[in-house]
Design a protein that fits this description.
Blueprint lengths: L9 E6 L1 E6 L2 E4 L3 E8 L3 E4 L5 E4 L1 E5 L11 E3 L5 E10 L9 E6 L1
Antiparallel strand pairs: 1-4, 1-8, 2-3, 4-7, 5-6, 7-10, 8-9, 9-10
Protein name: Head-tail adaptor protein
C-alpha cells in the first residue's frame, strides 16, 4: 500500500549524494523534486556512524520517490538547505500500513 497522496502536502528538493569530496567539494546527482509530508521538530536519531545526533526535520515520502542516502543535500520549502542524516524504509508487508521512506535531516 502506498502512502496516500493527500498526506503529501509539501515538496522538498533532494540532491542525492554522489561520492566523496573532491577538490570542489562533495559530488551530488541531479536534483529531484519530492512530494512528501514534512515534520519540523527536533529529535534524537542514530546517524550512519552509530552516534546519536539531533535531527531538526524529518520528511516522509513514497518508497519510489528518491534514494536519499546519508549526506544527500535537501532544500526545504522555506529555502533552508540541510543534509540527510539517515533514511529508513518502512514496508507494511501484508498489514494495511502504507509503505514509505522516513528521512531524518540535520
Amino acid at each position: 500500500m502506498k502512502l496516500p497522496g493527500m498526506w503529501l502536502q509539501h515538496q522538498v528538493t533532494v540532491e542525492p549524494y554522489g561520492g566523496p569530496s573532491g577538490s570542489r567539494g562533495p559530488k551530488f546527482e541531479a536534483p529531484v523534486a519530492v512530494r512528501c509530508f514534512l515534520e519540523e521538530k527536533n529529535r534524537m536519531v542514530r546517524a550512519k556512524d552509530g552516534n546519536e545526533v539531533v535531527s531538526s526535520a524529518t520528511f516522509y515520502c513514497r518508497l519510489d520517490a528518491v534514494d536519499a542516502v546519508p549526506e544527500s543535500r535537501v532544500t526545504l520549502p522555506d529555502g533552508r538547505v540541510t543534509t540527510v542524516l539517515v533514511q529508513a524504509r518502512h514496508e507494511g508487508g501484508k498489514l494495511p500500513l502504507p509503505d514509505h521512506l522516513e528521512v531524518s535531516l540535520q
